[in-house]
Specification:
alpha/beta; Rossmann fold; 352 residues; 4-stranded parallel beta sheet
Length: 352
């Protein structure tokens, strides 16, 4: 709310002093992103921004950009657009990721309002696409946020997810005249409440099935194996999430397989690859499997189309009989509780 010169806390200011906003704390959640539409140019803009990120593809520009601009971005927008059309929220004219993120933020706003009142402002941005990180940071600063807590919606840390989201946040701050104090939250891959929330989705899904699956596959987004060797902790954190989930469920070793999906390019990525692994399970006689995606805070193209489409087909084509996809945590109340725990811990010292 605007406070004019001479009013409120600025009673000492001269009459011509610029209007000053009541100080607030911003809580900014960041998700990966989504194209604005499924048409060629919307897909091309989104893919260009995503695939030009050095954290995602670290090939030198002189090698990568000609290939990207002249070959990949002339073809891939058509295939990616077709895949998005399969899952597009036609009623809202947006991707499921956008719909779900809005639902999450609505519940987080309610929770934050109950906890902190008007002292905080909750919003979200996308690393790629809209709303951009810059636009939301600008909005928060314009609304009087003198402190901003930045919350990447990635349970496990990876340079290509958490770090690039943080990069965009810090770059946005570089363009702000009155920079707010800033904090970023750490990954929450081993937080007990997060593991409990994952376990809850598994237990509910299994309770609704006529028979227990032979194996639960925990499919995480992949990355080049080289990144692991260069010190990225993502692979180790994924393995720990799977182990903690198995222990929380009280299952024996070997009951959860950790795999990686969304392989891109020719170099070796983290293995085993989900699409190959589920086919091998079917060939081994494991005809009933379930798949969960612990690395995604929201269902998206990689879960709704890739897992529930391509990966399901690979399993069934190899002889699998029943394939159960367990949705992401999305706006489940247990997930909102996890995220609010993260927020509350990281606001200590800023607000009571």
């Amino acid at each position: 709310m605007m406070t004019k010169a001479g009013e409120g806390r600025l009673t000492h200011a001269p009459a011509d002093h610029p209007a000053v906003l009541k100080p607030k704390i911003g809580i900014l959640f960041a998700n990966l992103g989504t194209p604005d539409g499924t048409d060629y140019w919307s897909m091309r803009r989104y893919l260009n921004e995503f695939l030009s990120d050095k954290r995602v593809v670290d090939i030198p520009d002189w090698k990568w950009q000609p290939l990207l601009q002249l070959i990949i971005l002339t073809r891939r927008p058509f295939t990616s657009g077709a895949n998005y059309k399969l899952i597009w929220n036609k009623e809202a004219d947006e991707s499921p990721l956008m719909t779900i993120t809005k639902q999450q933020i609505a519940k987080l706003k309610t929770a934050a309002d109950l906890r902190y009142g008007a002292e905080v402002m909750v919003d979200f941005c996308m690393r790629y696409g809209n709303p951009s990180t810059q636009s939301v940071v600008d909005k928060m600063v314009a609304a009087g946020c003198e402190k901003i807590l930045f919350v990447p919606l990635y349970p496990q840390y990876a340079g290509a997810t958490s770090a690039t989201a943080n990069d965009a946040f810090f770059k946005a701050l570089m363009k702000v005249n009155r920079q707010p104090a800033a904090r970023i939250t750490p990954e929450y891959f081993d937080r007990p409440s997060y593991i409990d929330a994952l376990a809850g989705t598994v237990e509910r899904a299994y309770a609704a099935l006529p028979h227990k699956p032979d194996v639960l596959v925990a499919s995480y987004h992949g990355m080049p194996k080289r990144y692991l060797m260069e010190g990225d902790p993502y692979h180790c954190q994924c393995q720990k999430t799977s182990r903690l989930l198995r222990e929380r469920l009280g299952w024996e070793k070997g009951s959860i397989d950790t795999t990686f999906q969304s392989v891109f390019g020719r170099e070796e990525w983290l293995k085993p690859y989900t699409v190959e692994h589920v086919a091998e399970l079917a060939k081994q006689g494991k005809k009933h499997i379930a798949v969960i995606s612990p690395a995604f805070a929201s269902d998206c193209i990689e879960t709704l189309e890739e897992i529930n489409g391509e990966i399901r087909e690979a399993f069934e084509h190899a002889g699998g009989e029943s394939f159960t996809y367990i949705p992401c945590l999305n706006d489940d109340e247990a997930h909102i509780k996890v995220l609010m725990e993260v927020v509350e811990e990281n606001l200590l010292g800023w607000i009571q």
